[in-house]
Amino acid sequence: MEESPENLLIDIEGGICTITLNRPKNLNVFNEKTLDEFYNVLEDVSKNAAVKVVVLLSACEKAFTAGADIKEMVDKDSDGGRKFAQRGHRIARKLETMPQPVIIGVHGYVLGGGVEFSCACDIRIAAEGSIFSQPEIDIGVIPGWGGTQRLSRIVGIAKAKEMIYTGKRVDANEAKDIGLVNHVVPKEKLQEAVMTMAKTIASKGKLALFDAKKSINQLYESFIEEGLKYEIDRWSELFETHDQKEGMKAFLEGRSPEYKDE
Ligand code: CAA
After folding, report:
1. d(Cα 48, Cα 180) in Å, to the nearest integer?
2. What is the spatial distance between Cα 192 and Cα 250, in angstroms, rounded to a whole number?
3. Distance 66 CA to ligand 1 centre (A)
4. What is the pTM of this model?
5. Other CB atoms closer than 10 Å to residue 216's CB: what's the count?
6. 37, 96, 116, 231: which is the annotated catalytic residue?
7. Ligand 1 lining (C-beta closer than 6 Å)
8. Active site residue 61
9. pLDDT tens per residue, the chain (262 residues)?
10. Which residue segments constitute the domains of the chain, with CATH numbers given?
């Protein structure tokens, strides 16, 4: 990559690449700039022969992320909405298909795109007190970065529907109960737990490790693209509706939305 990313910290040591989201004043919300930086970093790392395992963390005290930047989305039309969705989709797809296993350590708010990117990772570890939610329904849209496909596969269709239809918050312990995260650890031990797992995985042979990821992914590789494309189509059509504009404006103005079902 030509320039260092502004909103991400990168560290490579002992075969482990740690990528830390670093937009703390904005709750690590993903604007277009951060999305593009994130994708470019992942693209580089995926080709780096010295990296066997990737770790994702957040440098924001309150959140892994509050999701996609609603201020950037609110006024988009369907074409703009589609391009915004595609920016997130290519990141999730890269996390999912890059050769290296990806371990994500989350704390605080893990909202919208935060859940969606987590679900594209191989292993999820949460700090106690983490709060997971797909709140898109409350701003007049649906999960737009693969949540309808990957969350459903990880927690099962019934739990995913409940989360996506209600926007409800799921705490770390419930997230573990429904299989959304592998482990819950005290917040001060999160980084240690993630790095211990990363070191264990990095100590294995790369050939078998990468083949294990590819082989497990074959479980759904034949149909995931189709489901993701369907989601992007539905998401971008919603940007032609009154309710998407109203839902996002209402959030930014701190009031309840008044939907017209149009
Ligand atoms: N985009 C833009 N701004 C956001 C934001 C977001 N996703 N989340 C929070 N903010 C802003 C708020 O507008 C507020 O800005 P101001 O200080 O300028 O008013 C600031 O961050 C702090 O937010 P709150 O005042 O709401 O703080 P809080 O502590 O009461 O609540 C929160 C924090 C629980 C994270 C709350 O802000 C919240 O629920 N955010 C959720 C946003 C959301 O719906 N995210 C999903 C977006 S869609 C998506 O990610 C996926 C996709 O499919 C593409």
Report:
1. 29
2. 40
3. 5
4. 0.97
5. 12
6. 116
7. 27, 29, 66-71, 88, 109, 111-113, 135-136, 139, 143-145, 252
8. no
9. 557 899 999 999 999 999 999 999 999 999 999 999 999 999 999 999 999 999 999 999 999 999 999 999 999 999 999 999 999 999 999 999 999 999 999 999 999 999 999 999 999 999 999 999 999 999 999 999 999 999 999 999 999 999 999 999 999 999 999 999 999 999 999 999 999 999 999 999 999 999 999 999 999 998 999 999 999 999 999 999 999 999 999 999 999 999 999 9
10. 1-187+206-262 (3.90.226.10)
